[in-house]
Specification:
alpha+beta, Aminopeptidase, Glucose Oxidase, domain 1, Pdz3 Domain, 29 strands, about 25% strand, elongated
């Protein structure tokens, strides 16, 4: 009996020991489960669906849609439990110029007779604010004199197009190029225009137009100029006042009682409006950034992030000189309280290779290692310069370490195709957790210090190399010897802006004889086109205001003629240059042996004319 009990007890212990061992083995062999992203994905989707809704008409600053989306973001900050950090609630305002309007000091005299401004005549506020005193003959355009010519062509006069005012700049620039010192356009339409209905105060100032331009009513023309074929004294003095509207930043904080604060930022207004009248929803640019910002709030409330406070800021006005960001940085003593900043721009297009692009890596020496420590399961890459202004650059200029996250750009950036259907929501959840991981890694490394020096960084510096088991040796086959490929030189990064080290030659035509493509694996890599002068322009840069010269070949013809990096080409001959695309198209209008003046705006704001032989 005793023997049976001993055997039973032994078997029980053996069984228990075996079960315990298996349980322990299971625990030790179990990998940490990946976080469940279902709730995160749903939150991101809900935010982007709202932010990219047609009812906000593209979120362009100054529109009702912009004001309404501002109110929505303010509501979301409240729902997220953030502490208000605005002048009124979460909101702070700044002023931005919308255009100019004529003042009571504006005058127009014909033979010393005063014409009534806004009734008989109206100055175009997007043109030069200049005084002009001249003798002119109606309908006789002479060089170095004021011109009085028809507003419409004979074909247009019977039925002027609704957008005639928007297309007037080409007429003005042509007259200016041909020597007009002032341009007076008289109404020759069949039914006559009511000058009071001409709304031009909100048209942005055209920096290329350097002469005053007035429109003269049909009645005033008939009373003072019709059938006149002799010199008439005309005096005009355009006097404008700047018109302003309010733009907004929205800010809320997590206050952990820490000495320093990390700024998490994203731009929320739409950058451009469609020429076709379509709504640009901006799902990727930058509803995705704002949605990610909100999803980071609960993640950064966990204990591992307690060593800093967090300010979540939605900026606007980046295309107006980063007015929103600069307004925020002008808050007294704010800069001394910022530990570092995180920018989130266009993060909704994570590709199958899981590439996440970072700008600003060189703005603090510690960023490189901190990013690498957080990147075991990710594929970070150095980002290229953004194709438009971004608020994060204001932080870098103020000496604040800043990291900007993106999933890259392509030719459809900001186009009509930027819809919610193109967003990778699961990828957005991945990016959100990666940003949180990088923040945690940086926080463990101490307070970042701004780096003002150029340092060499490559993609390999950010990625954790995975150890892969050696493959069995391949069968020996005889092949001709090949020259080993040279290793790429790391890009030199200055304050987070990578510079492409190589410019491989191509066999493009002489007009555009070289094309430097940045990293071809980069989903949004920009392309610098080098023209026959050795001037490099970004062919994807669609910003209005001229073609920006990004690079200059030291031994090229352009350098000899006096072109510099940072110059902006405004005009070639009589053809205005609006952006990089129009610059490249304009070059094709000229043949070998022809000459033309390039009108160039220098970095100091001065304008020069450079005589170029094609």
């Amino acid at each position: 009996m005793v023997y049976r009990r001993i055997v039973a007890l032994t078997l029980l212990l053996a069984t228990a020991s075996s079960g315990h061992s298996q349980l322990l083995k299971n625990i030790l062999n179990t990998k940490p489960s990946a976080p469940n992203n279902d709730a995160l994905i749903q939150g991101i989707k809900t935010d982007i669906q709202e932010l990219s809704n047609d009812k906000y008409t593209g979120r362009a600053i100054g529109t009702n849609g912009y004001n309404n989306v501002t109110a929505h973001i303010e509501k979301r900050m409240s729902e997220s439990g953030l502490v208000r950090y605005g002048t009124v609630g979460y909101k702070s305002s700044y002023k931005y110029a919308t255009g100019r309007s004529a003042t009571v000091e504006a005058k127009f005299l014909v033979s010393n007779k005063n014409l009534i401004v806004n009734t008989d005549v109206i100055p175009l506020s997007f043109c030069a604010n200049e005084e002009n005193n001249a003798y002119l003959i109606p309908n006789v355009p002479a060089a170095y004199s004021a011109w009085l010519v028809p507003l419409f062509t004979p074909q247009q006069a019977n039925r002027p197009a609704e957008d005639w005012l928007d297309k007037l700049d080409k007429v003005i620039l042509n007259a200016q190029e041909r020597g007009a010192t002032a341009l007076y356009l008289y109404d020759n339409s069949a039914n006559g225009l009511d000058l009071k209905n001409i709304k031009n105060s909100n048209i942005p100032i055209h920096r290329d137009i350097t002469i005053p331009v007035w429109i003269i009513s049909k009645k005033a023309y008939n009373d003072h100029f019709k059938d006149v074929n002799y010199l008439v004294p005309v005096y005009s003095n355009t006097k404008f006042r700047n018109d302003y509207k309010d733009g907004y930043n929205l800010a809320g904080t997590i206050n952990n009682g820490a000495a320093s604060t990390i700024v998490i930022m994203a731009d929320y207004d739409q950058l451009y409006q469609s020429d076709k009248g379509e709504i640009l929803n901006g799902a990727n640019d930058n509803a995705s950034g704002i949605a990610t910002l909100f999803q980071l709030v609960p993640l950064l409330r966990t204990p591992e992030y307690k060593q800093y406070n967090y300010a979540f800021v939605a900026f606007s006005g980046s295309q107006m000189g980063n007015l929103g960001a600069q307004s925020f940085l002008n808050i007294p003593d704010i800069k001394s309280k910022i530990a570092y900043a995180i920018d989130i721009t266009a993060v909704g297009k994570l590709d199958s290779d899981q590439r996440i692009y970072l700008n600003g890596v060189a703005s603090a020496l510690m960023f490189k290692n901190a990013i690498k420590d957080a990147s075991k399961d990710y594929q970070p890459r150095l980002g290229q310069e953004y194709p438009h202004a971004s608020s994060y650059t204001s932080f870098l200029k103020e000496g604040i370490p800043t990291l900007s996250f993106s999933t890259g750009y392509n030719q459809y950036f900001n186009a009509e195709t930027d819809k919610i259907t193109g967003i990778n929501f699961a990828g957005l959840a991945t990016v959100t957790r990666y940003i949180a991981g990088v923040i945690a890694s940086v926080n463990k490394s101490g307070l970042p210090k701004y780096n003002n020096n150029d340092i060499a960084i490559s993609d390999k510096d950010l990625v954790v190399e995975k150890i892969v088991a050696a493959a069995p040796p391949p069968k020996v086959t005889t092949k001709p010897a090949q020259k080993p490929a040279s290793k790429p030189t790391p890009a030199v990064v200055s304050n987070g802006a990578p510079v492409n080290p190589g410019k491989p030659k191509t066999n493009n035509p002489a007009l555009v004889n070289k094309k430097t493509s940045f990293d071809s694996t980069y989903a949004g890599g920009t392309a610098i086109v080098i023209d026959f002068l050795g001037l490099g322009v970004n062919e994807l840069d669609s910003r209005e205001g001229g073609a920006y010269i990004y690079s200059l070949e030291g031994q090229g013809k352009g350098a000899t003629l006096g072109f510099k990096e940072g110059d902006v080409v405004l005009q070639i001959g009589s053809f205005p240059v609006f952006n990089a695309k129009s610059y490249l198209l304009t070059l094709r209008k000229f043949k070998t042996g022809e000459r033309a003046y390039f009108k160039v705006k220098k970095p100091d704001g001065k304008t020069e004319m450079i005589n170029v032989a094609f």
